[in-house]
Amino acid sequence: MVKFRAKTILFFVLLSLTSIFAQEPKNTITSGGWSLGIGGVSVHDEYLSPLVYTGTLFRADYESMRFISDSNNKVSLQRTLMVSGGMTDNEAKTNSIFYLALRPGIGVHYHFRPVTNLKILVGGVWDVFFASKYSFNNGNNPYSADISTQLNASAIAQYTMNIKKFQVIFRYSTRSPLAGVMFVPEYGSSYYEMFTLGKLGNAIHFASLNNSFAWNSSLSADLMFKRMILRLSYTHDYEKHHANSLHFESMQNVFSIGTVINFSTFDRGKRKAPASYNDINK
Description:
It is a single chain. With 282 residues, this protein is mainly β. The chain is 9% helix and 62% strand. It has 2 helices and 11 strands. The chain has helices spanning 2-20, 191-195, and strands at 28-45, 52-67, 75-89, 96-112, 118-135, 143-163, 166-183, 204-208, 212-224, 229-243, 246-265. The chain has a 10-stranded antiparallel β-barrel with strand order 1-2-3-4-5-6-7-9-10-11. The longest helix is centred in the first third of the chain and has 19 residues, at 2-20. The termini are far apart.
């Protein structure tokens, strides 16, 4: 039964990654943004230590968004990827934990346009989260991992402001998980026993608001220069979950700078762009 559940989780992880990086259809209109940032991170992992560890974090984000077809301006497809890493220390500086996290995701949103220049997007995002933590002073069990896949409620508010001929797009996005599956080992169980010998025990859990909570939000401003789009953003990610009498919690606060590229592909470059088409930014 345990092996079946582990294989099921692996299947959904691979399926989600395949969906995220699947090929685009023939005619697409896509806005893609890349950002690099630095900030702070706090980690509380009772499998490794009862103490809270804090430190500096480096983070990279990618996001692309397009309508599901070139004749639709109501429903969009979003793809995201977050990679972050940093070194953390406990308050007494007696031990350090190296932290590395990865989160790919794919979502669908419906677009509302209540007033001019304002757009509200409501939908859902399915993501896969993996965080790796290594404690330098733990002899027996120095490693811990957060592994989960969840369905998130998602909302985005976007407002376009024109200052004379200069345009700025402000955007606030937020999402929070509703349900999914997560991996939480029992205290004292070694990863060698779990993944080499197959003794997972009670390590696979259903994740819901009862035992897992997260609030991921971002505030950004896209500065529309003539030759480039500059993105300035602040991101706050807070997550906590518990199972097997163990508590896990992490928080990231990151300031980022990046660029946005709006690009179109029509019949994979075999024909010219039509006279008019939907713009994902409007």
